Amino acid sequence: MNRDGVLLLGGSGFIGRALAERLNAERAVVHIVGRNDGDRLERAIPECGTVIHLASATTPGSSARNPNLELGNLALTLRLLELLQSQPETHLIFFSSGGTVYGNPDRLPVTEDAPIAPLSNHGAGKASQEVFLQAYRARGHAITMVRPSNAYGPGQTLRQGFGLIRTLLEHACCDTPIQIWGDGESVRDFIFIDDIVEATTRLIKLPLDSGTYNLSSGTGYSINQVLGIVEKVCRKPLYTEYRGARGIDVRNVILDNTQLKELLAWAPLVDLEDGVRRTFTWLRQA
């Protein structure tokens, strides 16, 4: 059986759609499977040499008061590992969360060997999936774990409480107030969707890889700085309402992307202002 296909589990999401478009342009055989389509997942795996696990039903906000929601994500990952036992040559690329699994790291930028100390249930869910994947990897299976920073760019749908840049641009377009949790000085690392896709397509070409990598811009911006960039790009002020900080939110996180840059001869090419401008242009034309 030909196993040249690439399976995108959760491929209908933001990163999955962009990745599918790139792979289709390269004439790859792409199988897109939703997180609730277990029968299709079982049928597609034998045809695919690479599985990219992007599926997640939660965000840090959505499972904050409902930790049991993370069980669905863990159950899907365990089901995938069960199916992969009969496909030992399949390369699995798992998208974890660089923005949540480290918690508040002692040093910035944070490297992949830093302790895992999530503050949110979502981060704890990602960390638990990583532990099971590490056990599977220890038995000789090729598993690459990617810890992306905050993804943004054209094609990102609006999700309540998730995706700062997409949310800010929506409020700018609609002239509606945006709630900021805390003083706006928390620092985040943002990476443009094209840079994520480029790195991922290069990882697909390393079928024996079993590393863990930060996928990031390597540059931090405070929320207030991002607000200023959005106002500059949109040429209008944003109406902000500052609220008390939430315990689930990481204070400062910047991801060190040195390992991935060296492995792939890759570097993020789109800086934040350019990326925000491209996203705003797309949103106005959508």
TrEMBL record:
Domain NAD-dependent epimerase/dehydratase residues, every copy: 6-214
Listed name of the protein: Nucleoside-diphosphate-sugar epimerase
